[in-house]
Protein backbone atom coordinates (compact mmCIF):
# COMPACT_ATOMS: atom_id res chain seq x y z
CA UNK A 1 0.00 0.00 0.00
CA UNK A 2 1.42 3.37 -0.91
CA UNK A 3 1.74 6.08 1.67
CA UNK A 4 -0.98 8.22 0.10
CA UNK A 5 -3.62 5.49 -0.01
CA UNK A 6 -2.71 4.44 3.51
CA UNK A 7 -3.20 7.99 4.71
CA UNK A 8 -6.59 8.16 3.00
CA UNK A 9 -7.54 4.81 4.52
CA UNK A 10 -6.57 6.01 8.00
CA UNK A 11 -8.63 9.16 7.58
CA UNK A 12 -11.71 7.22 6.46
CA UNK A 13 -11.23 4.84 9.34
CA UNK A 14 -11.06 7.56 11.97
CA UNK A 15 -14.05 9.30 10.41
CA UNK A 16 -16.07 6.09 10.51
CA UNK A 17 -15.00 5.48 14.09
CA UNK A 18 -16.04 8.98 15.08
CA UNK A 19 -19.44 8.54 13.44
CA UNK A 20 -19.81 5.20 15.21
CA UNK A 21 -18.99 6.71 18.59
CA UNK A 22 -21.42 9.56 18.00
CA UNK A 23 -24.15 7.08 17.08
CA UNK A 24 -23.48 4.99 20.18
CA UNK A 25 -23.50 8.13 22.31
CA UNK A 26 -26.82 9.22 20.84
CA UNK A 27 -28.30 5.77 21.36
CA UNK A 28 -27.16 5.65 24.98
CA UNK A 29 -28.49 9.17 25.53
CA UNK A 30 -31.82 8.17 23.98
CA UNK A 31 -32.10 5.07 26.14
CA UNK A 32 -31.24 7.07 29.24
CA UNK A 33 -33.83 9.71 28.33
CA UNK A 34 -36.43 7.05 27.61
CA UNK A 35 -35.93 4.84 30.67
CA UNK A 36 -34.74 7.14 33.44
CA UNK A 37 -36.85 10.30 33.62
CA UNK A 38 -38.25 9.57 37.10
CA UNK A 39 -34.86 8.57 38.42
CA UNK A 40 -33.18 11.52 36.74
CA UNK A 41 -35.78 13.89 38.16
CA UNK A 42 -35.25 12.37 41.59
CA UNK A 43 -31.47 12.72 41.34
CA UNK A 44 -31.82 16.25 40.01
CA UNK A 45 -34.13 17.18 42.87
CA UNK A 46 -31.74 15.63 45.36
CA UNK A 47 -28.79 17.52 43.83
CA UNK A 48 -30.72 20.80 43.95
CA UNK A 49 -31.68 20.16 47.56
CA UNK A 50 -28.12 19.27 48.47
CA UNK A 51 -26.65 22.30 46.73
CA UNK A 52 -29.22 24.55 48.41
CA UNK A 53 -28.39 22.99 51.77
CA UNK A 54 -24.63 23.39 51.40
CA UNK A 55 -24.59 26.80 49.74
Q: Which helices and strands occur, and which strands form pairs?
A:
Layout: H1 3-35, H2 37-53
In total, how many beta strands? 0
- Provide the residue-averaged pLDDT: 75
Distance between the termini: 62 Å
Structural class call reads mainly alpha
Poorly predicted segments: none
The ordered H/E elements are HH
Shape estimate: elongated
Largest sheet, strands/sense/barrel: none
Secondary structure tally, helices: 2
Q: How much helical structure, as a percent, in the residues?
A: over 70%
What is the domain tally?
1
User: Radius of gyration over alpha carbons?
Assistant: 21 Å
SS strand fraction: under 5%
Gist of the model:
Residues 1-20 are annotated as: Disordered. By secondary structure, the chain is mainly alpha-helical.
Give an account of the 3D structure.
- The protein is mainly α and 55 residues long.
- The chain has one domain (3-53).
- The protein has helices at 3-35, 37-53.
- The chain is elongated and about 65 Å long.
- The model has no long low-confidence stretch (mean pLDDT 75).
- Residues 1-20 are annotated as: Disordered.
